Here is the input.
Amino acid sequence: MIPEKIETTRGRLLLRYFTEADTQTVYDIWSNPANARFMDAPESLEDVRELADWNNGAIQHSTNKDIMCHFRVVTLKETGEVIGTCRWHFKKEGKEMGFGYNLAEKVWGRGYATELLETIIALAKKCEVKKLIGGADKENVASWHILGKYMNFVGEENYTESDGRVVVDRNYELNF
Ligand SMILES: CC(C)(COP(=O)(O)OP(=O)(O)OC[C@H]1O[C@@H](n2cnc3c(N)ncnc32)[C@H](O)[C@@H]1OP(=O)(O)O)[C@@H](O)C(=O)NCCC(=O)NCCS
Here is the structure.
């Protein structure tokens, strides 16, 4: 059982469940153009609620019963301020784990994503996952730079967005 509240490896952040009161803050973070460049932006507050619900209970909504998602808001431990979101999911009967995070632009460059990835790796070990899987858009240099510090680059993958744009992802794995 994964606890609701998770303190990160370096003790600066606290992950906790999303609540209704977080909706506007999360909406503002996700819809900032600098964030939306690489992540899906919500069109409304309702989108945020739905995504949080979906992530928290994906097993009920997903057609793939093998996927179980977890979603938390990322807060500064000292002040409680919400500075982003993160999620992880298990697949292949818990043998594999994927993840993602999205942080407010005002806190970029402080090593928080690095701290989050360390925490996710620790969580994967605790859950006895065999493989951790991550990926980032080739143009999202900061993101794949962080992945590359802890995980192994396994190749690039092209896919076409609904608007016809071709995106290149850099994929990373860590085997335990
Ligand atoms: C990507 C993101 C999570 C990074 O968060 P962060 O807290 O700023 O990351 P950190 O401070 O831990 O580390 C950033 C690293 O990237 C490096 N970096 C940042 N911008 C860079 C750039 N343009 N080119 C090269 N390196 C860059 C930093 O130097 C740092 O590396 P270092 O620790 O070796 O010096 C954050 O920008 C974000 O939330 N972006 C929007 C959503 C997103 O892209 N999420 C990830 C999707 S895969």
In short: The chain has a mean pLDDT of 92. The two ends are 20 Å apart (CA to CA). Residues 6-132+141-152 form a domain with the Aminopeptidase fold (CATH 3.40.630.30).
